[in-house]
Amino acid sequence: MLVNLDYVLRPALKNHYGVGLFNCVNIEMTNAIMNAAEKLHAPVIMGTAEILLPVADLKEVAAMVKARAEKSPVPVVLHYDHGLTFEKCIEAMNLGYTSIMYDCSTAPYEENVKRVAEMVKIAHTLNITVEGELGHVGDNEGAGKLAKPSDYYTDPAMAEDFVKRTNIDALAIAVGNAHGDYKFPPKLDFERITEIASRVDVPLVLHGGSGLSDNDFREAIKRGIAKVNIFTDMNKAQVNGMKEGLTAGFNNAFDLMPYEVKAIQAVVEEKMLLFSSDNHA
User: Which of 81, 103, 216, 233 is catalytic?
Assistant: First the structure.
């Protein structure tokens, strides 16, 4: 069944477990994520990141994921992740997404506040939730890599002001996390998570979850993180699944698909159990 972020994150925050967002761009990922959620009776957030749209049309992805989610017995949030433009966020809402992340984190603070608050007003009239980002979560490599990530960490006092002025439903924070593969073990600022959580009344979000240690996840959730984004680990698992199928002697896409689904599903199940979201559907 389709729900918004409030439906799954408020109970998670109250009961100290995390809900995973798993970005998907094809049928193998979609089936693997939903299979895991239904097997473990876990709430799940199905993500579509704007940066992935060059390889997947938004209308086609929305139709595929929405159809699978609507017939599921577990609560499913259809979340437009890292929406970078107002127009694409509006399009996602019109296509049936129940939650939007409007990422204006690279804009000046007052502009971030203004743009996100405007999106919240529109979305809330449709019972759609909005996630904002304060500070900036960069990438581990490429154009998005930050020279000094700590310069972009979320300021707790600013977070309090941001939440009050925008009326967002969830806040993504920068505390030493980054997108993509970590070249060196990350060091999360757990005290910063604790302080931010004490100042705001909305669930906190950790982007760049792939590559963090199990203890990192547990401690972050304990301190107030309620939503964790995962993609890189799934992406790598799908490739490994293909390799396993090829090693088994299969050489066409149809025969490789079960191997891909199985490998991705294993990663998703592992994260759900680690976040303790199983049996909370």
Answer: 81
Cβ-in-10-Å burial (0-12, 13-18, 19+) of 157 comes to exposed
Residue 90 to residue 226: CA distance in whole angstroms: 25
CA pair distance 89, 104, nearest whole angstrom: 12
Long-range residue pairs from 237-246, CB within 8 A, at least 24 positions apart, any chain? 237/263, 237/264, 237/266, 237/267, 238/28, 238/29, 238/263, 238/264
In whole angstroms, what is the distance from residue 2 CA to residue 45 CA?
Answer: 10
Whole-structure pTM over 0.85, yes or no?
yes
pLDDT in tens, 199-233: 999 999 998 766 688 999 999 999 999 999 999 89
Neighbouring C-beta atoms of residue 280, cutoff 10 Å: 19
As a whole number of angstroms, the distance between CA 280 and CA 12 comes to: 9
Q: Let me know if 81 is a catalytic residue.
A: yes
Find the helix or strand (DSSP H, E) in which 207 lies. Answer: none
pLDDT given at position 195: 97
Distance CA 178, CA 145 (A): 9
Beta strand spans in the chain (E): 2-3, 19-23, 44-49, 76-83, 99-102, 129-134, 170-173, 204-206, 225-230
pLDDT tens readout for residues 136-176: 665 444 444 444 455 678 999 999 999 999 999 999 999 88
